[in-house]
């Protein structure tokens, strides 16, 4: 998605909100779209980790994925990720991998099962300067649409704290019970979402 003008003078590029760290800054070019959704690459790993670290460490004390794990998944299965970029800078993202069992297990935190049919959503994170703007729901909706276009992926699965269950239920996820995965003293609920016949597949979301 991009907006361009064919008549001079060219409009000034919109400014990002304050608070973008230096490592997320980038040179602006007239060819950069104002807003773009695309799969991530290993080159996006550092930017993704900085967003994730700020979002999760202060709240949970741990990250769903650390830098090496982000690089690992973006190398093995970049098609199961989706990033939201503003002026070429990453502001929100989701990273997933494939899993081949009915329920998530401790190994699913680090493994990508290429023959699996379940997309395990490891992390959804939004940069602090872009929160409270409805970006998380928009990104998740687009991500589910993106998964729905991949014939091998039949279901999405994730784990979250109980307080976040109502958020994911808005997107047709349903709780299947306590998750077998624990992180330190933290426990989670496991949720699944069928990608067959989901309403997002009947809508043009612009992906």
TrEMBL record:
Its UniProt entry gives the catalysed reaction(s) as:
a 2-arylethylamine + acetyl-CoA = an N-acetyl-2-arylethylamine + CoA + H(+)
List, alphabetically, the GO terms of the cellular component aspect. Answer: cytoplasm; cytosol; perinuclear region of cytoplasm
Give the E.C. number(s).
Answer: 2.3.1.87
- Which locations, inside or outside the cell, does it occupy? Cytoplasm
Residue intervals passing through the bilayer = none
- InterPro entries hit by this protein: Acyl_CoA_acyltransferase (IPR016181), GNAT_dom (IPR000182), SNAT-like (IPR051635)
Q: Tell me the route in metabolism or biology where this protein functions.
A: Aromatic compound metabolism; melatonin biosynthesis; melatonin from serotonin: step 1/2
Say where the protein is mainly found: cytoplasm
GO BP field: cellular response to cAMP; circadian rhythm; melatonin biosynthetic process; N-terminal protein amino acid acetylation; response to light stimulus
Renumbered residue ranges of the record's region Disordered: 1-20
Keyword Transferase listed: yes
Q: Which residues are in the N-acetyltransferase domain?
A: 35-196
**Keywords for this entry?**
Acyltransferase, Biological rhythms, Cytoplasm, Melatonin biosynthesis, Phosphoprotein, Transferase
| One Gene Ontology molecular-function label | aralkylamine N-acetyltransferase activity
EC class of the enzyme, as a word: transferase
Subunit structure of this chain's protein: Monomer. Interacts with several 14-3-3 proteins, including YWHAB, YWHAE, YWHAG and YWHAZ, preferentially when phosphorylated at Thr-31. Phosphorylation on Ser-205 also allows binding to YWHAZ, but with lower affinity. The interaction with YWHAZ considerably increases affinity for arylalkylamines and acetyl-CoA and protects the enzyme from dephosphorylation and proteasomal degradation. It may also prevent thiol-dependent inactivation.
The protein's role, per its UniProt record: Controls the night/day rhythm of melatonin production in the pineal gland. Catalyzes the N-acetylation of serotonin into N-acetylserotonin, the penultimate step in the synthesis of melatonin.
Question: By its UniProt entry, which PANTHER family does this protein fall under?
Answer: SEROTONIN N-ACETYLTRANSFERASE
Q: Which family does it belong to?
A: Belongs to the acetyltransferase family. AANAT subfamily.
Q: What is this protein called?
A: Serotonin N-acetyltransferase
Q: Which organism is it from?
A: Gorilla gorilla gorilla
The taxonomy runs: Eukaryota, Metazoa, Chordata, Craniata, Vertebrata
């Amino acid at each position: 998605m991009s907006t361009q003008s064919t008549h001079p003078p060219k409009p000034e590029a919109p400014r990002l909100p304050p608070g973008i760290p230096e490592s997320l800054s980038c040179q602006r070019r007239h060819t950069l779209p104002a807003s773009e959704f695309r799969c991530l690459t290993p080159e996006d790993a550092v930017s993704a980790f900085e967003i994730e670290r700020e979002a999760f460490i202060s709240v949970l004390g741990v990250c769903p994925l650390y830098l090496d794990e982000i690089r690992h998944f973006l190398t093995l299965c970049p098609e199961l990720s989706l990033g939201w970029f503003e002026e070429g800078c990453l502001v929100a993202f989701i990273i997933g991998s494939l899993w081949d069992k009915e329920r998530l297990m401790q190994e699913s935190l680090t493994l990508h099962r290429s023959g699996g049919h379940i997309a395990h959503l490891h992390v959804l994170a939004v940069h602090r300067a872009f929160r409270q703007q409805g970006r998380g729901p928009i990104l998740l909706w687009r991500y589910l649409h993106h998964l729905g276009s991949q014939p091998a992926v039949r279901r999405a699965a994730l784990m979250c704290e109980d307080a976040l269950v109502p958020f994911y239920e808005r997107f047709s996820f349903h709780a299947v019970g306590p998750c077998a995965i624990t992180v330190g003293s933290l426990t989670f609920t496991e949720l699944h979402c069928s990608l067959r016949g989901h309403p997002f597949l009947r809508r043009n979301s612009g992906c």
